[in-house]
User: What shape does this take?
Amino acid sequence: MTIIILLLLAYIIGSIPSGLWVGKLFYNIDIREHGSGNLGGTNTFRTLGKKAGLVVTIMDILKGTAATLLGFLPFFASANVHPLILGIIAVIGHIYPVFAGFKGGKAVATSGGILLGYNWPIFVILVLGFFLILKITKMVSLTSMCLAIIAIIYSIVYYFTVEKDWPLIVIVSLLAIFILYRHRANIERIKNGTEPKVKWI
Assistant: This one.
């Protein structure tokens, strides 16, 4: 029963539709009706501006972190569920949120939050990589997909040089698959040269 409650909580945390709630509460705007229709930070930036976009991105990151750390709470310690499993459940909640008709974001920020809670150096590397790659490509979607690949490479290098953490490789690979799958339409637009580009960097 404790395990079920723990997994359910991780899903509920992941299901919090940050972009939807911020848009409706503070701007009276449903961001699903604007831009890409996505609930993530990128569409929030485009639809509501930098301040709202930053808030939503941070909230989405912290969802992944909070879910990953749930198992360390005294009440759940006996459940012995791997932190990365809880993180994956949160990502599923983010992609298919019960509070937003099971249509959520692309899970890039939430995936980053998982890594922040589990292995913070990789999170720092990915944040730095985000700004560097975005500076070059001007495309958030392409940058996100590049980071997914970098995360896999990091987890493999980490396995052979620091600690044989095979769950990290498995979960990071799953997260990368989620991210690449959720960017199917972006891949087509990149091929066609119609993918939107950012102008602030």
